[in-house]
Amino acid sequence: MKYNVAQLLKEAIGSQRQFSISEAVSDVEQLMDQVTGDATFVRTHQGIWVQADLIVRISQDCSRCLADFKRTLELELDEEYFPEVDVRTGHRLLPPDDWEGLYIGADHILDLDEATRQSALATLPMKPLCKPECEGICDRCGADRNVNDCDCYALDIDPRWAALRSLMTEPQT
Ligand SMILES: [Zn+2]
Ligand SMILES: [Zn+2]
Predict the structure, then answer these.
(1) Which ligand is nearest to the CA of 135?
(2) DSSP of 39-98
């Protein structure tokens, strides 16, 4: 999701562009694979303010059964981007001291990928599950318990019950 904003940077404050997004993306960590939505870019006195409503398709591995699964997330971006280089003079620009936003590179390309990825990561659970009731993998026999119910744990007797039972069956003296 890369946009050349050279022209918009030359325009007056308040100028804007609106467009729809529908593209395949591949980020380094292979988290997102498709993004759709709408975005608005507005020229501000410092740079370009981006507002976007996105639907992002995410691939993850289930933390219990390790299967790949896909889900979609709805994300809102609300970020300001500061140009590293003045589009007219080609001179480097220094961001305000307290700048916490993002940057537009010297090629005047505004890239939404990183902001989208960060926003997705902030939304996703630490331990993703393919489904809330995922049974996971048996740590004894390795069976995917969503597919095959193994008996590994059915045969176990809770040790507290075992102790109680041996008490009850001890001969009275
Ligand atoms: Zn799972
Ligand atoms: Zn098992």
Answers:
(1) 1
(2) EEEEE-SSSEEEEEEEEEEEEEE-TTT--EEEEEEEEEEEEEEEESB-TTT--B-PPPTT
Which residue in this structure is represented by tokens 């988290």? 31
Cα–Cα distance, 46 to 43 (Å, whole number): 8
- Ligand 1 centroid to 14 CA: how many Å? 48
Contact call for residues 48 and 81 (beta carbons, < 8 A): yes
Compute how many other C-beta atoms are within 10 angstroms of the C-beta atom of residue 24. Answer: 9
Burial 93-122 (b: 16+ CB within 10 A, else e): eeeeeeeebbbbeeebebbbeebbbebbee
Reported as a single tens digit per residue, the pLDDT across 32-80 is 989 999 999 999 999 999 999 999 999 989 999 999 999 999 999 999 9
Which amino acid is it at 23? Answer: E
Amino acid at 47: G
